[in-house]
Amino acid sequence: MKFVQIEKTALNVAFSIYKSCIEQHANQGFYQWDETYPTLKIVEQDINKHQLFGLEHQEHIIAVVAVTDDEPQEYLKLNWKCESPYVVVHRLCVKKDYLRMGIAQKLMLAVEQFVKEKNYNSIRLDTFSLNRGALQFYKKLHYKQIGKVCFSKRTDADYTCFEKEID
Predict the structure, then answer these.
(1) CATH code where residue 103 lies
(2) Lower CB count within 10 Å: N or C terminus of the chain?
(3) How many domains does the chain have?
């Protein structure tokens, strides 16, 4: 597997992975993502800003994640432990056919290596608080829970924020 920056030619492939995640989440009974997020426009913006990455297996993209410096305003009220510079991870998603194969972990470890090589100090992220699998996933990878935020577009649940120092 290879960690790659997603190019414009793979826009539809990347978006189809996100659409499959929307379906997966709905089947699990939570509606973290829907037809309003993430959109094709968001994925295209990530690509245009060179901040969408993924894992490629046998020349096919099987997982995607945005690695950005776009920090949600809601993060400002939290007591983050690590100093700048940092990145924020958004929208990690694994293609349906590759679930439960350790792909998300491989992707996050590749992101951590990438962040280290770029001399960032830490990674920040949030995940839907009702997504128990995601909460356990980040804890297993030694991300520290920092607090919770609410986003104005989502009033039904909050989001748990995590941080990991990269050394």
Answers:
(1) 3.40.630.30
(2) C
(3) 1
